[in-house]
């Protein structure tokens, strides 16, 4: 069983869009390693579930992918760039190409659903967008994305009036507004009921396949990971203890 779990997910001829090798992260010299020798590949069109209890290093790994965690050693390659050696402007560009979804949605409750989605275009905004005057093309795209996630009928309503599941779909549409090369979803269903959890996770998986981008989603519920991901990576105390295709681990 151990050999199966730690076997590479599969032999692929395409190059991973994100490649992590022997990653070690420590927040201060007097603290233990938060990540200790982590290897991870993220391929286009694939949904990877990152499993682990609180404190296992899931959130830190996601932060390391966008330069928000201090890399002590090892490498994080996004495309052809090494995240550890990017300058401030280069990091901003990397983050603008990374869609992020969080447990608490991070919407502005008093603003309309449409405006919340439009804020996803601010990463590449011109002067007008920065002043809150969004381009008509951006508005059209935002409405298309809201339709894609099944919530366009709520476009004019304040975000705070929506249910948790609806708000998370707005957050996903906002992430898509960035035209991301990868999506990182950190515990996106932890605050949702089981039915809506399944809906949101299947939406993320559909996006990975249709947009041909990797989606990394952290979870703590094994059945959800088995049902809604292509590959599972398990973390414990900052080390990978499980890695394999979902079909193999579910067998």
Automatic annotation (TrEMBL):
Q: Which InterPro entries match?
A: AAA+_ATPase, ABC_transporter-like_ATP-bd, ABC_transporter-like_CS, MetN_ABC_transporter-like, P-loop_NTPase
Q: Which SMART domains match?
A: AAA
Alphabetized GO MF terms: ATP binding; ATP hydrolysis activity
Q: Which Gene3D superfamilies match?
A: P-loop containing nucleotide triphosphate hydrolases (3.40.50.300)
**A Pfam family name for this chain?**
ABC_tran
* Keyword field: ATP-binding, Cell membrane, Membrane, Nucleotide-binding, Translocase, Transport
Q: Which residues form the ABC transporter domain?
A: 18-251
Superkingdom of source: Bacteria
Please give the PANTHER family that the UniProt record associates with this protein.
AMINO ACID IMPORT ATP-BINDING PROTEIN (PTHR43166), PHOSPHONATES IMPORT ATP-BINDING PROTEIN PHNC (PTHR43166:SF6)
Spell out the protein name for this chain.
ATP-binding cassette domain-containing protein
- Native species: Candidatus Microbacterium stercoravium
